[in-house]
Amino acid sequence: MKFTDNLALQGIVPSIGSVGDPYDNALMETINGLYKAECIRCSVFTPEVLESVVDVDIATSSWVNWYNNERLHSTLGMVPPAEFEGTFWTEHATLRQVPEKAIQPI
C-alpha cells in the first residue's frame, strides 16, 4: 500500500511533497525532523558513530522509547505520550464498557 493511499484511508489530507513520498504529510515531516535532530545527528542515544544499520536500529529503538515514555510534550500538558494515553483510557474506561441490559438480542 502506498503512503498516500494509507493517508486517504486514515482521512489525513497530504500537505506538500511528491506523491508517495513520506514527506506528503506535515505530521510525518515533523516527526522525521525530530528523529533526525534528536536521534541521528545527536549522540544522546548512541555515543558511538553510527556505522551500520544495526547501530541505527538500536539508536532508533532507544529514541522511540524515550519519545513515547519520557519526553514531555507541551501539547499534551507536559506529560509523555504513553502517560497521556494511559490517563485518557483510564478516564474513558466507562465509555468502553457496555452494560449487559443494553445488549438486545436480534
UniProtKB/TrEMBL annotation:
Q: For this UniProt entry, which segments traverse the membrane?
A: none
At the top level, the lineage of the source is Bacteria
Under Gene Ontology molecular function, one entry of this record is: nucleic acid binding
Q: Which Gene3D superfamilies match?
A: Ribonuclease H-like superfamily/Ribonuclease H (3.30.420.10)
- Integrase catalytic domain location is 1-88
Supply the InterPro entries for this chain: Integrase_cat-core (IPR001584), RNaseH-like_sf (IPR012337), RNaseH_sf (IPR036397), Transposase_IS3/IS150/IS904 (IPR050900)
Q: Which Pfam families match?
A: rve_3 (PF13683)
- Single biological process term from Gene Ontology: DNA integration
Q: Which SUPFAM superfamilies match?
A: Ribonuclease H-like
Q: Which named protein is this?
A: Integrase core domain
